Amino acid sequence: xxxxxxxxxxxxxxxxxxxxxxxxxxxxxxxxxxxxxxxxxxxxxxxxxxxxxxxxxxxxxxxxxxxxxxxxxxxxxxxxxxxxxxxxxxxxxxxxxxxxxxxxxxxxxxxxxxxxxxxxxxxxxxxxxxxxxxxxxxxxxxxxxxxxxxxxxxxxxxxxxxxxxxxxxxxxxxxxxxxxxxxxxxxxxxxxxxxxxxxxxxxxxxxxxxxxxxxxxxxxxxxxxxxxxxxxxxxxxxxxxxxxxxxxxxxxxxxxxxxxxxxxxxxxxxxxxxxxxxxxxxxxxxxxxxxxxxxxxxxxxxxxxxxxxxxxxxxxxxxxxxxxxxxxxxxxxxxxxxxxxxxxxxxxxxxxxxxxxxxxxxxxxxxxxxxxxxxxxxxxxxxxxxxxxxxxxxxxxxxxxxxxxxxxxxxxxxxxxxxxxxxxxxxxxxxxxxxxxxxxxxxxxxxxxxxxxxxxxxxxxxxxxx
Amino acid sequence: xxxxxxxxxxxxxxxxxxxxxxxxxxxxxxxxxxxxxxxxxxxxxxxxxxxxxxxxxxxxxxxxxxxxxxxxxxxxxxxxxxxxxxxxxxxxxxxxxxxxxxxxxxxxxxxxxxxxxxxxxxxxxxxxxxxxxxxxxxxxxxxxxxxxxxxxxxxxxxxxxxxxxxxxxxxxxx
Lengths: 466, 174
Known about the structure:
The structure holds 2 protein chains of 2 kinds.
Chain A: H1 16-19, E1 20-21, E2 26-27, H2 35-46, E3 51-55, E4 64-70, E5 73-79, E6 85-89, E7 104-106, E8 109-111, E9 118-120, E10 131-134, E11 158-162, E12 165-169, H3 177-181, H4 185-192, E13 202-204, E14 209-213, H5 217-226, H6 231-234, H7 236-241, H8 257-266, E15 270-272, E16 278-279, H9 296-316, E17 326-328, E18 332-334, E19 342-350, E20 353-363, H10 368-381, H11 389-402, E21 413-414, E22 422-424, E23 430-433, H12 440-453, H13 458-461
Antiparallel strand pairs in A: 1-2, 2-21, 3-12, 4-5, 4-7, 5-6, 8-9, 9-10, 11-12, 13-20, 14-20, 15-16, 15-23, 16-17, 17-18, 18-19, 19-20, 22-23
Chain B: H1 3-26, H2 30-34, E1 37-46, H3 56-59, E2 69-73, H4 75-86, E3 98-110, E4 115-128, E5 132-147, E6 150-160
Parallel strand pairs in B: 1-6
Antiparallel strand pairs in B: 1-2, 3-4, 4-5, 5-6
């Protein structure tokens, strides 16, 4: 009888460093199911890291707001009367009630429905937008002795508008967004540039897809980070259906099998060794524009756009690739440029449940026929009704479920693919895989994860592992 | 036959059609179900949102033709979905789910023959693998064309009574 080595049967607290044996290519399953680890993730990772909150096109006018999430907290992304953008904790300072239970809307005053404290977003009325403004019975019940300047909605200490994409961090000690992102910015550029490479050239479609999956959030982040390996098995059925630009003659991304082989031959995943971000392509891997089945006008349109982008990027000395899919550590995943182009953020609910939010991204000045084609394509590709993503959810769901077993959790996951099969990347701070399929991205993601969850300082976090 | 009797007969025909449709879906006779769809079918399931009372008309539901919806598609895409279900490697439906569609509150609310506007409620129950269970309730507005072969669906608009979707995926039809 064969005996397979397992980890020890123990209830001892999990040491994040010990759980991630990246050099040996194994990771402890417990980090995907353990409640104590989850609490540490919320405290040490989600309360510190830079997280995507929303896009400025969602709050175009003064008073517009969009209620978002950062980790387990509800936050309000809003534009004040003077046009400035804010991210505020959506919880009344008096008894914690959500001051806003709408998903979106327009107001310059958030009034708590419990006792009526109200917070103003008009800078002419308060010293700081979000400050406490109206307190029922301020004179009578409080004797006027309540310092309203100290009891406003809690603002995030750091917010950054990257070409229309709004990010925030709850940690006042956090490094700048630019330092946090590093050279991964090229992928964010592909996402935020128009198809012709014009900076900040995109907006989001109205409507964010929100849905729950009984899976650990890291399965999702890891999938977009660099898991090219799952596609052939997970997504076999969608390729039979043929949902891409070239219909049944090509892949879901619009490639013929010959084109796909060609892409694979020069495709390398990029992994940011310290920062933890990852992408399934290289910064300099340029891709051909797809050939559309039955829509020569779209083939022509996208080819023209790609040519302009190519020339523009060459003139600017910028890399020609960085298409993704990619994940900005820890929880923002996206397809950067084109087929499709969407953002997926995972909001952890518990170790075994995650809320997924997806935004659809499109050029601001796109012709209507192109906009419509993309909109339909994004919908049939992505989200709970997407032909591609449905199968991912099934796998994340039951991978999480099966890892909960008392015996199962003693056995580590295998993360050994492509160990040592890497070379320096086209961009600084990163390594590139020799093969198109690798788990190097995941290994570096979890190295980063362990350092955050263990509570390393920002100074430590920004240096090579000791 | 009086107008009222004709309306009652039409309502009964519509209800019977919806029950037939539910049987075909729940017995996974998807090709036969596709035959009930008009070639120019529009099939729309918007995202529902929490918005202030004075914004309900404008923003409660995302709009077909403009925004992001759970579904905003045609018969061609629905046919692709059926094709995917038939592959045997569509893991979200392997093993297959146990699905029941309950149709109720069926009313004829307008239309000029051969077109009929209908309103109904739908309860979709799905159970799969072991204990994974989803229940979705929806308001459904359909435009049917009455043909010699029976009613055909020309337009279907479904309002799911959820904003954050609680089933992990939508591998079934409404």
